[in-house]
Amino acid sequence: MRIVTEASLSSLILSILLFIFSLILTYQTIFKKRKTWFFSLVVYSSFLLTLSETIRSAVTGTNLSLVLITIALIIWSLIYILLFLFFQQLVSNTINPILTLFIFFFYFIEVEFGILQFYEYNGIIKKVFIFLWDLGYDSLGFVIFVYGAVVHLHILKKTNDIEAGIITSALIVIGLGFVWGFTEDLLIFLKDIEIIKDSQFLTISKKSMLSGDMIKALGILVFLGVYVFRPNYTFKHPFKIDSLIIYNRIGLPIYGAKYTKSNEEEEKEITEKQFYHFELIGGAINALSEFIITTAGSKKKLNEINTEDKIIKIISNDLCSVVVMSDKISFFLIQSMKRVANSISKKYPKELEAVSYTHLTLPTN
Questions:
Q1: SS3 breakdown of the chain: % helix, strand, coil, rounded to 5?
Q2: What is the 3-state secondary structure (H, E, C) of 123-141?
Q3: 36 with 51: CB under 8 angstroms?
Q4: Separation in Å, CA 224 to CA 22, 117, 332
């Protein structure tokens, strides 16, 4: 996290690459109709922050430099927290409250001691505040990116996707970058309080050819690169999907698919008998939903049936319902189901109004 000789050059190179990534994401969002607003925001913010780091290096050693780096690290931490929420949404539709509490605890330490360092404290007290500020920032980043690596490792085990393996490796590298950066901060702190001598510090520093920031920059570029060039990978569900059924407004199945394995795109042919079974499922869902509305006074339709090992997720609009049976439901699976429901409603309004079987031929991707 401290300024090193290579910081200005590495920040400049990183800002240029992030700017190129941001242009690619903007193109995909506008012209390719990809849903990349989140990563566009992250990459644009990262570009501006790395560019400001390059500018800040010109005023190193001044109060303005300290103010700029404090603000920049607070904003960086907010970006990390957004990524933390993104990592959770890849494999779940809920937020882990305990882990989130730890994340905001580290963020509080960073902000609190980042502000306290501006007060007129003398000697060792101010050095301790600066060290705790460093500790909060590096701990926050380390926990978030290691958690992201664990999430993508889980996805890798489920899907065997090469992208998941690359992202896992990149996130581990970023986590190691935070450890490396904290080690640099610790050495500086020990030198400041005269536990180690200047000569020892210089000897250790010269052996370090890379800084923690450069290691993090390398990992961030690889991580963002996968999602920049494969934006649809965000919506790839890592858990086994047993079946996908689409019903029209009166509960008749118009499309159905049964999948063999989560990492296969092969789809079995759906027979009339299977469509009859899908119709029974649709009738049961509608009956249960009406029962809850009538007896309990609910104003919302049934949207989920949860057993010990399976979840049936239901997304409905005025014309159709999309039903997925899966081992687990993630935030991005729900977003994909909403997109499917809206897209089909716009493309097949007449078929969805039919009161008899109307089979739709939909693309498998």
A1: 65, 10, 25
A2: CHHHHHHHHHHHHHHHHHH
A3: no
A4: 10, 33, 18
H or E stretch including 304? strand 304-306
User: What does the alpha-carbon distance between residue 170 and residue 257 come to, in Å, rounded to a whole number?
Assistant: 35
pTM of the predicted protein model: 0.77
Torsion angle of C-alpha atoms 68, 71, 74, 78, degrees rounded to 10: -110
Q: How many residues does the structure list for the chain?
A: 365
Alpha carbon separation from 193 to 179, 197, 304 (Å, rounded): 21, 10, 59
From first to last of its 365 residues, the chain has per-residue pLDDT tens of 443 334 455 566 667 777 777 777 677 667 666 565 666 677 777 777 776 666 666 556 566 667 777 777 888 888 888 889 888 888 888 888 899 999 999 999 988 888 887 776 677 888 888 888 889 999 999 999 999 999 999 988 888 889 899 999 999 999 998 998 888 888 878 877 777 666 555 555 544 545 677 788 888 888 888 887 887 777 777 888 888 888 887 777 788 777 754 444 444 445 555 655 677 777 777 777 777 777 777 777 778 888 877 888 998 888 888 999 888 888 888 888 888 888 888 888 877 776 555 555 555 44
